[in-house]
Amino acid sequence: MIRIDQIKTGTDTEDIYGYLRKSVAKKLRIKEDFAFEIVKHSLDARKKPELYNVYSVDVKVDNELSVLKRSGCKQARIVSKKEYVWPEGRAGEYRPVIIGMGPAGLFCGYMLSLAGCRPIICDRGDRVDLRQKDVESFWVKGTLDPESNVQFGEGGAGTFSDGKLNTLVNDKFGRNELVLKIFVENGAPQEILYESKPHIGTDILSIVVANMRNRMIGLGAEFRYRCRLDDISSSSTHITAFFDNGESLDTDALVLAIGHSARDTFKMLYDKGIPMSVKDFAVGLRVLHPRELIDSAQYGVQNLDKGLGAANYKLAYTSGSGRGVYSFCMCPGGYVVNASSIAGQTAVNGMSYSKRDGVMSNSGIIVSVGVKDYGSDDALAGMRFQSELEKKAYSLGKGNIPVQTYLDYINADKTVSGISCDGFKGDIHMTDMSGLLPEGLRKSFIEGMGAFDKTIPGFAGKEAILAGIESRTSSPVRIHRGTDGRSEYGFIYPCGEGAGYAGGITSAAMDGIYIAEEIWKRHLI
């Protein structure tokens, strides 16, 4: 396979495949009767207002080495793709039981279903279509279902996000590509296979999740909803999971893909003596801007009418105190959503639909925190730190999302201006949020905002709006596991973001695949 990188086209090129075919033929000095596929696409805006689409393509030809040498093309090289290989093994005596239907749990179940293991997949929340109704009811009426909400239910927390599928995980085994292929097989657009920053949006992701579930059921998997894991008991041969509905299940492979917000489950596991430790994460505020402000800064005002879609950004800064300040879960043309899952506590997140056509763009601007901020180093200290911040946010917002303009936030007079903004899912309450973050975090946040304003003019200006609190950036705990994926507490497999081994949809799905492999390999004859 010959890969050619850095093939540039204008943003107004209509027949992309035709252009690429001609370009490849010219670069390799061959006729146009070859097969090729796009493997990467990105937008180069470094020299705006001049913008370019940049492609990498893989070309299939005979005698590729001689073709490459004869062409003299410096952008071309021979590559071999890492194909995913399912390990050797066999099904165990018991059916695997998976707790959690986020990407980690779903992909673990998907692979085990393909292998014929007939897993049982449980979640405290509801099926994705019914869960959507629970979430909409919360946003419109303020009625929180503590079991089925933005955090809990089929699809996991990522279902009500931007559906971003990019990851920084170094993929040595082909799991990343496999995750994207499975998404496409179940209804995601083909473009996610090569876009540099793939996303599918919450509307398409919910369809994909339902299709994956139906495929698994057809392979013998079983899905159980509205059943919260409340207790466990282990013997020499198996582990028993006890649920809040009075049911129990025996298994020799209990996958804990519980997500980053299952605080009651974390505590139960801690009380049971499951080895775990406190983990660093980050907290901050959601920052909203008019989409046009971000698009103008990223594309150039001359390109706003060219149909390029809502612009993305990724920002990072180290404050004078040494804390990392960075953008998180950037949602172009999206919404800030009330992502609460506990009565009397408020947390926010960002969400975009597939078209990303909202009038506002937002991201979390978050600040790193650790044991020095928690006041303790026990395993649940970070969880308690999150909880206290969310209680404060609930109080400030009087049960709704607390909101303030950025200029009011840094104003010594602590004024609270009104806003008119179509950028929220859930009711808002204008309030003084200057005391929401601990003072050291607040200073780092303001310092970072000032630095980001130099990159994106107006980022810390009069049009910036803050919402709080962004506290569910990642799990506050790590549930320990060995090189075989297992906990010291027999038959438990900690998995995904909630267990502290992933950060985002794709990396969680990849970890789910890894755990499925380990369960399968353990029964190798």
Please outline what is shown here:
The protein is an alpha/beta fold and 525 residues long. The chain has 13 helices and 24 strands.
Describe the secondary structure blueprint for this structure.
Layout: E1 2-10, H1 16-28, E2 35-47, E3 50-60, H2 64-71, E4 76-78, E5 97-99, H3 103-114, E6 120-122, H4 128-141, H5 175-185, H6 201-218, E7 222-224, E8 229-234, E9 239-243, E10 248-251, E11 254-256, H7 263-271, E12 276-278, E13 281-290, H8 291-299, E14 316-318, E15 324-331, E16 335-338, E17 348-351, E18 360-369, H9 371-374, H10 381-396, E19 401-405, H11 406-409, E20 424-425, E21 428-430, H12 439-455, E22 465-470, E23 477-479, E24 492-494, H13 505-522
Parallel strand pairs: 5-6, 5-11, 6-7, 11-24, 16-20, 19-21
Antiparallel strand pairs: 1-3, 1-4, 2-3, 8-9, 9-10, 12-23, 13-18, 13-22, 14-15, 15-18, 16-17, 19-22
Helix pairs in contact: 3-6, 3-13, 5-13
Task: Provide a descriptive summary of the structure in words.
- This protein has 525 residues and is an alpha/beta fold.
- The protein folds into three domains: 2-78, Alpha-Beta Plaits; 97-277 and 477-522, FAD/NAD(P)-binding domain (3-Layer(bba) Sandwich), CATH 3.50.50.60; 280-470, no CATH class.
- The protein is 29% helix and 24% strand.
- The protein contains 13 helices and 24 strands.
- It has helices at 16-28, 64-71, 103-114, 128-141, 175-185, 201-218, 263-271, 291-299, 371-374, 381-396, 406-409, 439-455, 505-522; strands spanning 2-10, 35-47, 50-60, 76-78, 97-99, 120-122, 222-224, 229-234, 239-243, 248-251, 254-256, 276-278, 281-290, 316-318, 324-331, 335-338, 348-351, 360-369, 401-405, 424-425, 428-430, 465-470, 477-479, 492-494.
- The strands form six sheets. It has a seven-stranded mixed beta sheet. It has a five-stranded parallel beta sheet with strand order 7-6-5-11-24, covered by helices on one side. A four-stranded antiparallel beta sheet has the order 2-3-1-4.
- Helix 3 (103-114) runs parallel beside helix 6 (201-218) and helix 5 packs across helix 13.
- The longest helix is centred in the middle third of the chain and has 18 residues, at 201-218.
